[in-house]
Design a protein that fits this description.
Blueprint lengths: L8 H9 L4 H9 L5 H7 L5 H13 L3 E4 L2 E4 L1 H4 L2 H14 L11 H10 L11 E7 L6 E7 L2 E5 L9 E5 L1 H9 L4 H6 L4 E4 L1 H10 L6 H12 L1
Parallel strand pairs: 3-6
Antiparallel strand pairs: 1-2, 3-4, 4-5, 6-7
Helix pairs in contact: 6-11
Length: 225
């Protein structure tokens, strides 16, 4: 933990939150990630040793409780939510644009999408979404939505595919983050959607998208207005 040697609530906050990766760990905690492997999957550029260290620092600072193999945010951590989303809105307004190559990790995006699929939209019937990317270290993924649960598969699960999604990785990231509208991207040929019509009709409803997507869309609307 860095110390600044100034008696000020801002510096005290930065002593807890200012180290590299810490705010991203907090971001994922307030968004519901509560197991070590889940946190690690969402932060692949962070070593597991450093993640363990940061979680220990946050626990000692009173921002989380570690029990039953879960990391549970405390009130102090929950109260950082408006700050995290405030940074998201500022970033959408002043620091966001086309994705950089080093920001495009297909596996991370698929884990995010998995967490952002509402399985209740399709009820009790099994629904399989197959995503094919035009580039990336891994280009094929399957989401199996079955009885209220969503599984991410890296090999063909052997079920009939209901919807095929084909897109460049960067485009799919921008759809997820709210920079591109899914229907508009499909209409313009940036994303190709094919499969069962009844599943396709409710696909935009089933995809909850990134938690910051509404902020990104809001900033875009203000810029256009």
């Amino acid at each position: 933990m860095s110390r600044y040697g100034q008696y000020c609530p801002i510096t005290r906050s930065l002593e807890i939150l200012g180290d590299r990766w810490t705010l991203l760990v907090v971001r994922d905690l307030v968004l519901g990630a509560d197991r070590f492997n889940e946190l690690a999957r969402g932060l692949p550029g962070m070593s597991r040793a450093l993640l363990s260290k940061r979680l220990g620092q946050l626990e000692r600072a009173g921002l989380l409780v570690h029990e039953d193999d879960r990391y549970r945010p405390t009130q102090a951590c929950d109260e950082l939510r408006p700050i995290i989303f405030g940074l998201a809105e500022w970033g959408a307004r002043w620091a966001f644009g086309e994705p950089r190559e080093d920001e495009l990790d297909p596996t991370v995006l698929m884990w995010w999408i998995r967490a952002g699929i509402d399985p209740d939209v399709w009820g009790q019937r099994r629904t399989v979404l197959h995503v094919v990317l035009s580039e990336g270290r891994r280009t094929r993924f399957w989401f199996v939505v079955d009885r209220g649960d969503v599984s991410l598969c890296f090999t063909d699960p052997g079920y009939d595919v209901d919807v095929l999604v084909e897109a460049p990785l960067g485009v799919l990231y921008q759809v997820w983050e709210g920079l591109l509208d899914l229907r508009t991207a499909a209409r313009d040929g940036l994303v190709r959607l094919s499969g069962r019509r009844d599943v396709l009709l409710v696909l935009p409803e089933a995809l909850l998208f990134s938690p910051v997507a509404p902020l990104v869309r809001g900033v875009q609307a203000q810029a256009l207005g």
